[in-house]
Structures are given as C-alpha cells and as structure tokens.
C-alpha cells in the first residue's frame, strides 16, 4: 500500500492514544465486535456491524464515514486504497453522556438498574476526541495522502433511516445560480421561523420545521459534520432569542433559555440528533412568547407581570404588587383585569403552578421544597391547589412526566 510509513505511524498514534482500530474485508461479518464489548455486556442486539450493512455497499474510496450509534459512540470508516479491505477507528466519545442521557438510553432498551450501571462504568474507559481535536486533521491529512485528494466526510447516524440516495457522495454545486437558490431558500426558511416565533404561532412553526431540510441550512465549512451542525445551532439559538424578544419576552427569561440551549447544543452527539434539537429549541422559544410575552400591555401591567414572575417565592398580593409599582391597589386591579382578562390573584396562581410544573419535571427537588420555591409555606395547601389545577397530586404528576399547558 502506498504511504505505508505514514499509515504505520498513524496506527502507532492510535495505539498510544488508546483509540481502537481494526481492518476487515467487505462484505463484513455482522458478528464482528467493535464497540469494546458494550452490547455483549448489556445483552443488546444487533451489533454495530449489522447496523452498518446498509451503507457498506455504498462506500467509496476517498470518503470518511463518521458513524454514531444510539449509545453516543463514534466510529470512523474508510476504504483502504487498492484493496477490498476497510479500516474502522473507534469507539470513542466526543462528549461524556450526562446522567440523564444514560438513564434515557437505559430506559429505551429496557435495561434493569444493574445493567444501566454498566453504562456509567463503561463511558469513562473510552477515549474522548473533541470536535476541534488535531486528531481529525491528522486523519484527513492521511486520507489525502492515500487518495490524492481531500477526503469527503459523510456523517451517518445509525438511529436514522438510511436510504441509498442519502448515502451517496453529493455532487458539488458548481454553478452560481444553484448556490444562490440554496441560500435564498435557507434565508426564507429562517425568516419564516423567526416570524412564527415572534408571533408565538406554534402550529405554523411546527409545519415549517416538518418541511425543513436541515442539510440545506447547514454550511459545510469544516471537515467535522457534527461541528458544522453545532455551529448552525449556535447561530439559530441567537436569532430565535432575538425573535422571542421581538415577540415581547423580557431578557431575563431569554437569557435563561439561551444558556440552557447553548449547553444542550454542545452536548449534541450526532447529526441525527440535531434535527430534533432544532425543533425543541424553536418550540421552547415559541412557548416563551406564548407564556411570557407582554406585548400589547401598558408599561405598568408589563412591570407587574415581570415583578410577579421574579418574586414567586415571596408573599404576593394585590397590595404588595401595587405597592412595588407605587400604584393605587383598586385602580391597578381594574386596569390589570381590563388588559389581561385575568385578576392579578389569578395570574399569580397561574405563574406559581407553571413554576411548580417546571420544577417537578426538570429537577429532583422534594415536593415540600418546590412548594416553598412557588411561595407556598404549607405543602398540604400547595398539593391541594395543585390537584385542583391539574387533576392530580404533584407526586403523581412527576411520575407521569406529562407536560400540561397552562
């Protein structure tokens, strides 16, 4: 094989870095084990190779196939030139799965707690290769030597439905009109999404996301496909935040959601997961407009809404809110009801229930602690009000995990 010395050096680097690799002949045996024994220990089938059978026949020399599986494991496949043999590198991680991701994976495969614990012990044993690691530059340089041209990186998620058309190497658009049309489609889609978020129109947003092709929107500026999608999601997070602000949401809520989304973007394990995350992020900003927009209200009512949402753990009443705004309580009560259609007392209760639901679904705080965060000193009273609002107790609600729109 040409460049044998460079190839041998690369293999030595893998060995010293603790990154597994092996060669095999196509068509591959589906019983080959390349996931460091994870599926065997968990009793999960099929094997990684069984999942790869769909794209093996479509592999082309000069392409690197970046494969991710349902356990957040990464693999790199590429053909060795002038031979029927293939090289696979992995498994490795780009990020360590969080505790929540591990529990969700265990639940998906009905793993008992004892086997779920195997996942927690397994991940620290794997090497971690960051998106901006020089490892990728080294690999792509090697492939350029082997094939005499720049490697084409093909992202594949074994969780996605793969079609032969999706697995073929895309042709590069050479003519300017086609490239311009792609850009126009991308900007039209983004403008429509931003308007839907600013209007709080979830139905319109869901239709746009259903029809959207994320591959059209993502600019393939870097060799790593996951990093490309992460960069796009970072930009989208920023523009959606501005759209929600245009929809009347105060920056205090936008900043909290924006930071949460940014952390989730960096946790993206695969390109397949990006489409779902984009939908979730856009939907969250749209919900934020629906729940927290103060657009159309006068400044005193806007200020009162913000004050209530920032002080839910404290004693709140018409008198305390009107006093904070330096307004007459009777006059402000009538004004708030006229503009919002709700009494201030009803609005306070609604916001407390929303906070309670959020804390029940996103934390492991005790019900008594959640009651205190929502301004209820008596947990029994809190539970009674919660049941009247939702139809079940806080503990029952947490077990069902269902989201109630208030």
TrEMBL record:
Pfam families: HTH_18 (PF12833). InterPro entries: Homeodomain-like_sf, HTH_AraC, HTH_AraC-typ_CS, Tscrpt_reg_AraC-type_HTH. The keyword Chaperone does not apply. This is Transcriptional regulator, AraC family. Keywords: DNA-binding, Transcription, Transcription regulation. Residues 302-400 form the HTH araC/xylS-type domain. One of its GO terms (molecular function) is sequence-specific DNA binding. PROSITE patterns: HTH_ARAC_FAMILY_1, HTH_ARAC_FAMILY_2. It comes from the Bacteria.
